[in-house]
């Protein structure tokens, strides 16, 4: 018996399930895709509607108000690089994709992380799933997303959301597990409600670890969005792909540096806003 004829193909078992989902839930997937496209369209429109100089100035003003001078200067320089590299539209598309993906990832991961920190059974169920999700190569997430949502920006966002959830969920769980028990007992002894304990004690204490989780979520989401250029998501990922396929070193280098600029921009802005306006600082 030839060993070459003995193999295991997961696709043979998964393909019928995917076909069944596409047949019976096509309307659901189409509706989800339309909602995501609408939200993404609003964000992209808001970024591309004003003149680039106007948007750069607006970001600078907002950064000055909500962060501090160094973040303001840095943000303006990063946006200026995206503009003068000739990749303004692609950069704004990438920022829109990352922003929507990160917001949805955090909206899913944060409550799950809090629940996992408080209910051991939930933590026991999520832990092996998170281990698997962080072991799977990032481009693998694009395969089921494309099968269910076809090509374009929607599967890119779906894959990015799934890829960005594990770091935020893990660090949220860790942050709430490491809360000092004496602070929680003090709040309970003073008659504080669970809501007051959450917003006055737990969130301020967990803020540094949550900030790290948000940072990791942003960076991993950006990495996935770049890979999503392979499935027609547009943005800087498409420019990198174009540079590789056409062997245009200049385009590939400019797109790569623009990706770095966008990553640093989002990281510094989010870090600056949260550090200055975190509950700990405000309290």
Automatic annotation (TrEMBL):
It holds the Pfam family BPD_transp_1. GO terms for cellular component: ATP-binding cassette (ABC) transporter complex. It is a multi-pass membrane protein. Coiled coil: none annotated. The chain crosses the membrane at residues 47-66, 73-90, 96-119, 139-165, 218-237. One of its GO terms (biological process) is glycine betaine transport. It is found in: Cell membrane. InterPro entries: MetI-like (IPR000515), MetI-like_sf (IPR035906). Its main location: membrane. Keywords: Cell membrane, Membrane, Transmembrane, Transmembrane helix, Transport. GO terms for molecular function: amine transmembrane transporter activity; carnitine transmembrane transporter activity. Residues 91-270 form the ABC transmembrane type-1 domain. PROSITE patterns: ABC_TM1. Gene3D superfamilies: MetI-like. The keyword Transmembrane helix applies. Belongs to the binding-protein-dependent transport system permease family. This is ABC transporter permease subunit. It comes from Pseudomonas helleri. The lineage of its organism: Bacteria, Pseudomonadati, Pseudomonadota, Gammaproteobacteria, Pseudomonadales.
């Amino acid at each position: 018996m030839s060993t070459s004829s003995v193999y295991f193909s997961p696709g043979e078992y998964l393909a019928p399930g995917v076909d069944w989902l596409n047949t019976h839930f096509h309307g659901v997937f189409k509706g989800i895709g339309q909602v995501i496209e609408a939200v993404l369209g609003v964000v992209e429109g808001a970024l591309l509607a004003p003149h680039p100089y106007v948007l750069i100035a607006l970001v600078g003003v907002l950064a000055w108000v909500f962060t501090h001078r160094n973040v303001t200067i840095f943000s303006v320089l990063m946006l200026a690089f995206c503009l003068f590299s000739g990749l303004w539209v692609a950069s704004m598309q990438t920022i829109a994709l990352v922003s929507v993906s990160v917001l949805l990832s955090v909206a899913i991961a944060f409550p799950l992380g809090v629940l996992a920190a408080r209910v051991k059974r939930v933590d026991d169920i999520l832990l092996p799933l998170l281990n698997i999700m962080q072991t799977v190569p990032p481009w693998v997430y694009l395969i089921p997303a494309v099968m269910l949502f076809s090509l374009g920006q929607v599967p890119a966002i779906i894959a990015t959301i799934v890829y960005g959830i594990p770091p935020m969920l893990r660090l949220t769980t860790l942050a709430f597990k490491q809360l000092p028990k004496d602070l929680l007992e003090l709040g309970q002894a003073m008659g504080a409600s669970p809501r007051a304990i959450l917003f006055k004690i737990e969130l301020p204490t967990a803020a540094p670890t949550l900030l790290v989780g948000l940072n990791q979520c942003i960076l991993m989401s950006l990495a996935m969005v770049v890979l999503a250029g392979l499935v027609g998501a547009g943005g800087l990922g498409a420019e990198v792909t174009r540079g590789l396929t056409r062997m245009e070193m200049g385009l590939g280098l400019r797109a790569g540096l623009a990706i770095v600029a966008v990553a640093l921009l989002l990281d510094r802005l989010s870090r600056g806003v949260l550090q200055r306006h975190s509950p700990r600082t405000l309290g």
